[in-house]
Design a protein that fits this description.
With 615 residues, this protein is of the alpha+beta class. Helix content is 47%, strand content 12%. The chain folds into four domains: 55-199, no CATH class; 204-357, Orthogonal Bundle (Helix Hairpins); 359-516, Jelly Rolls; 545-614, Ubiquitin-like (UB roll) (Roll), CATH 3.10.20. It has helices at residues 67-92, 94-98, 101-119, 136-145, 148-156, 159-167, 174-180, 187-199, 205-234, 255-270, 283-335, 339-354, 360-364, 369-386, 395-402, 458-463, 484-491, 495-511, 556-559, 574-585, and strands spanning 124-126, 131-133, 406-410, 415-417, 425-431, 434-440, 443-450, 455-456, 470-473, 477-483, 515-519, 525-529, 545-549, 566-569, 592-593, 611-614. A four-stranded antiparallel sheet has the order 3-10-5-8. Strand 6 and strand 7 form a beta hairpin. Helix 1 (67-92) crosses helix 8 (187-199). It is elongated and about 115 Å long. One of its GO terms (molecular function) is voltage-gated potassium channel activity.
Length: 615
């Protein structure tokens, strides 16, 4: 096989086949053991799976992702390395082409001839449907009609051996040397091989790229040196060549002596050392040297650019962290923030970089919502089910809620919730521990310690009141955050689950009295309740907050400046809503409308933060 499109991919289906195989990926004799080794050109279609129950291809059709076929391709890469070395070498040193290397060339060509035959049986990926085509006639037509087939044949035919059989003589003319260069067509296999390795996370990207750059450099040095020696061998005056001035009888000397001189000249020229002991003498050599040095400029830029990119890439996170720390230090200095607050900011930033690989949002942000939900369900479902507030709720509620949660890490001694702040989220501790703290008369008082699967911030969200406590991380802690707006939207249509959640909340508040020990002047301990043991009457679902205005929505431009909206809890009836509006605005309205002028007849249709106009 000689092209990148023949790669691992989903299974084609004929019209007579059941649609069920779309859920599976076909294979002929091997399975994909590690998805990390799959290159971008052979990824499965959405919905396909890897492993058991895979369907077989047609008879005498090879799957491009077959393990044995992959091993065969890897073996051919080794032979390509030999061809890349031998082709320029045989052009420069004709004795080697007709001597000891000839049998090796024939064996290598035989392996590539076998690969040409195998290619007629390898399924390929249809780019329009992303399904494997396994019909033999389509596979053959595609291969023959593209450039790959004639080039594969031309690079495989042993022209010199064929000429010897036909004429009975061994021809050492330069034409056969250049025909042998057609074998360099096989180099595309090496490029595809490195592309697969770069995408395979089992191998270091740095060392893969490093090896690729070394191979490119060695091939350039080898090819230039061989061609430079070939120029010397074909020049009419051997003494007026770059090597003839130093080795007059170089044509009769050892092949390896000439090869050593060639590599020495090529490396010193590439490295721009230029000792001057080997230099161009005739015009042809000077012209070639000019183009070789121009090529070296581009090659050197390519090598330096790639190496710089690889090295800098490993330090990007360090540079980003240093810049972020400097910005924090500058900000705290300009605004004269307290030392303790500055330490919290630095601790949070340091933790963010140290746990970058653990941050769920950074990993999941580019994934489809279905996959994110499945991952969150796997990681946090047990935590949600064991939290007191969600015990007994339906499976549907848990599945919907787990897709809305956000995971965060907090370093020690960082305030997660601040007393008297507006309730926007509540939290569940996944790992670690937090302290619940209250401030009374300017004094910080410790209330309790919360651990895994315990919740905080729920009181402020349920009551729609400022947070009654400060919650501070005791050690490195992972928590999941639930937005109160998303939570209420989720609960509203699930009334039975809403009743269960409120019952759990009321039961805990009635059973729990959080007390703080204080000392009176006599040194006797006394107890003081921080949270009342009675709970206000709550509706069957969490209260909806709306914003009411006391004027016609068509007159918004003339009234917005002097008549601000009022945020209220939505009552149970229209009559109660009109009464609240009368109290707020001092006049009795009869009509309730939305911003677009549509009249409201059913309060149950209203959502959180809707604007109502009563006039």
């Amino acid at each position: 096989m000689s092209y990148s499109d023949t790669a691992r991919s989903p299974v084609p289906l004929s019209e007579t086949r059941s649609p069920m195989p779309l859920l599976f990926r076909r294979h002929s004799s091997g399975e994909i053991r590690n998805i990390a080794s799959v290159s971008s050109s052979i990824l499965p279609a959405f919905g396909t799976v890897i492993g058991e129950n895979s369907i077989k291809l047609k008879r005498f059709v090879i799957a491009p992702y077959d393990r044995r076929y992959r091993l065969w391709q890897t073996f051919l890469v080794v032979l390509v390395v030999y061809s890349a070395w031998a082709s320029p070498f045989e052009l420069a040193f004709k004795k080697a082409a007709t001597g000891g290397l000839l049998p090796v060339d024939l064996v290598v060509d035989a392996f590539f001839a076998i690969d040409i035959i195998l290619t007629f049986f390898v399924a390929y990926l249809d780019k329009s449907t992303y399904l494997l085509v396994e019909e033999h006639n389509k596979i053959a037509f595609r291969y023959i009609s593209h450039l790959w087939f004639p080039m594969d044949v031309a690079s495989t035919l042993p022209f010199q051996t064929i000429n010897r059989i036909v004429t009975g003589k061994m021809n050492r003319g330069p034409v056969f040397g250049f025909l042998n260069l057609l074998r360099l067509w096989r180099l595309r296999r090496v490029s595809e091989f490195f592309s697969r390795l770069e995408k395979d996370t089992r191998f270091s990207y740095f060392w893969t790229r490093y090896c690729k750059l070394i191979c490119v450099t060695l091939f350039a040095v080898h090819s230039a040196g061989c061609f430079y020696f070939w120029l010397a061998t074909r020049y009419h005056n051997a003494d007026s060549t770059w090597i003839g001035t130093n080795v007059p009888d170089f044509k009769t000397r050892s092949i390896w002596l000439g090869y050593t001189y060639s590599m020495y000249w090529s490396i010193t020229t590439l490295a721009t050392v230029g000792y001057g002991d080997l230099h161009a003498v005739n015009t042809e050599e000077k012209i070639f040297t000019i183009f070789y040095m121009l090529f070296n400029i581009g090659l050197t830029a390519y090598l330096i650019g790639n190496m710089t990119n690889l090295i800098v890439h490993t330090a990007v996170r360090t540079f980003a962290m240093r810049d972020a720390i400097n910005k924090i230090l500058s900000y705290t200095s300009k605004n004269r923030l307290p030392e303790g607050l500055k330490e919290q900011m630095l601790a949070h930033l340091t933790l963010k970089f140290k746990t970058a690989e653990l941050q769920q949002e950074q990993v999941l942000e580019d994934l489809p919502k279905a996959i994110r939900s499945s991952i969150s369900k796997h990681l946090f479902r047990t935590t949600l089910e064991n939290t007191y507030l969600f015990k007994g709720v339906s499976e549907d509620f848990i599945v919907q809620l787990v897709s809305e949660i956000k995971a965060e890490y907090f370093p020690p001694k960082v305030d997660i919730v601040i007393q008297n702040e507006i309730p926007t989220d509540f939290y569940i501790v996944v790992s670690g521990a937090v302290d619940v703290i209250t401030y009374k008369n300017g004094t910080e008082q410790f209330l309790s310690k919360l651990g895994s699967q315990e919740m905080f911030g729920d009181i402020g969200v349920i009551f729609n009141i400022p947070q009654p406590f400060t919650v501070r991380s005791k050690r490195l802690s992972q928590v999941v955050r639930i937005n109160h707006h998303h939570f209420k939207q989720l609960v509203q249509p699930l009334k039975e689950d809403g009743k269960i959640i409120l019952a759990n909340f009321v039961q805990l508040q009635e059973a729990t009295v959080i007390e703080v020990g204080t000392q009176d002047q006599a040194g006797q301990a006394k107890q003081e309740n921080i949270i009342p043991t009675t709970t206000p009457v709550l509706s069957n679902t969490l209260p909806t907050r709306v914003i009411i205005h006391g004027y016609d929505p068509d007159n918004r431009r003339t009234n917005e400046g002097g008549n601000a909206g009022k945020l209220i809890h939505l009552p149970d009836s229209v009559e109660d809503l009109l009464s609240i509006a009368e109290t707020k605005f001092g006049k009795r309205g009869t009509t309730i409308a939305m911003a677009d002028g549509s009249q409201v007849e059913d309060l149950a249709a209203l959502r959180e933060d809707d604007h109502l106009y009563i006039f």
